């Protein structure tokens, strides 16, 4: 009798302790300066943290810049200095405080002295809040393989000279590392002759300032100002200038004995905010999450996805480490099971979002392929065994696998998952689902359902279906539609209404009738088709 009483008392005290610990852990104040104000990097990332019980301290959206407003960094830094003393942790984009955001970092005209002074102000934040943990996300400049007329993302001259700059500098780096054939050397020399000197110097000197600033950020990590740093290799290719600079950064880090406990560099950028926020929560709450990973049939972890120079297995290890977690070999020992929808042969499909004159009409993304049923069977098996399951959907670039999603819906599995992602690059998707999956342990079922519904609307409804349908409508309905497709020609409301109409139809057909899905609205916050902002009903 006494043993039974003591056992019950132990259980009661354990429950009280755990409940109190969780209550005390929730509500941390986390200051967040994202890389820009895109829906995925700002609203959707913040929503995950808020659903996990965190209080987010956020700068006004209008402080961020897309077009080169020189006042943006100063506004963000002044806001940081004003608010940092009240935070328990801070996750800060260096691109935001140095340049005003990711896109301005590619076109800015700031001097090295100005950039250095801004980094000194970052260092001074430590004095305002000595116990603050500061996590920083940073990007090496990307090297697009060609330019696009009218694009706001690169200097104007990149439309004409971008392809030549990319090819010439790629050949130069290849010459440094493995050597060139005589034909390649002749091509390289001709390209450098054809690129105007003032244009090449402008492009190169801006990159050098970014590289120098990145080394100073590494110094701040080495001296303890920054608690943890991620450097992202933004969209890059083999032998590109980005890859060359990444090797220089790796050498600099090794020379200064910076290990993975303080710094990592990997492909990606847009998912880094959520990964670092997750690490901040793990540090504050004393959590060390464990994840079991399983893959679709085929080469799985050895897949080299598009827009990355590392395998999926390496990326998962890196991103989980950034988030403060680790992989375990037994699902019973894991906080959740991460199932990765890779193509059996390691292919990345690009059938979503293509314009009508660029599309392979013989490919049907709704048709099950080899591996589709195998993967859904695997999801169902883990769910039926009671494991918390998260799905990383990376078979397609920038959008869900329609065939796989249709099967998940048929088997009533969509809202039996803990988390899902299937947007943009494989690394973006993996990082976002890892961060969300770790934080679901602090969420209610309603919170999980809202986050799942957001991803299904964004990654499945829009990116894999509605975006293509509306793109076709624009292409045929309006003159000069290729430029209209990225700028809307002043007809934003017309386009947004069309997208909202189709998205609501998709939701009514494929998702449960949740109250928050009633009359949701969709807008094109960045005046382009690449992303949308989805606002649920209050």
Which descriptors would you attach to this protein?
538 residues, alpha/beta, Rossmann fold, 3 domains, five-stranded parallel β-sheet, globular
Alpha-carbon Rg, integer: 24 Å
Number of domains: 3
Structural class, from helix and strand content?
alpha/beta
Distance between the termini: 53 Å
Relative strand content: 5-15%
Tally of helical runs:
17
Shape: globular
Indicate the percent of residues in helices: 40-55%
Kindly report the average pLDDT value: 91
Biggest sheet, spatial arrangement of strands: 2-1-3-4-5-6
Strand tally, please? 13
Run of helices and strands: HEHEHEHHEHHHEHEHEHEEHEHEHHHHEE
| Largest sheet report | 6 strands, parallel
Uncertain parts? 5-25
Report on this structure.
The structure is a single chain. The chain has about 550 residues and is α/β, with parallel strands linked by helices. The strands form 3 sheets. It has a 6-stranded parallel β-sheet with strand order 2-1-3-4-5-6, with helices on both faces. A 5-stranded parallel β-sheet has the order 8-7-9-10-11, sandwiched between helices. Strands 12-13 form a two-stranded antiparallel sheet. Helix content is about 50%, strand content about 10%. The chain has helices at about 1-25, 45-50, 70-85, 95-100, 110-130, 160-175, 180-195, 195-220, 240-255, 270-285, 310-320, 370-385, 400-410, 425-440, 445-475, 480-485, 490-510, and strands spanning about 30-35, 55, 90-95, 135-140, 230-235, 265, 290-295, 325, 335-340, 390-395, 420, 520-525, 535. The chain folds into 3 domains: about 1-285, no CATH class; about 285-440, Rossmann fold (3-Layer(aba) Sandwich); about 455-538, no CATH class. Residues about 5-25 have low confidence and may be disordered. α11 packs across α14 (about 425-440), α12 (about 370-385) runs parallel beside α13 and α15 (about 445-475) packs across α17 (about 490-510). The protein is built from 17 helices and 13 strands. The longest helix has about 35 residues, at about 445-475.
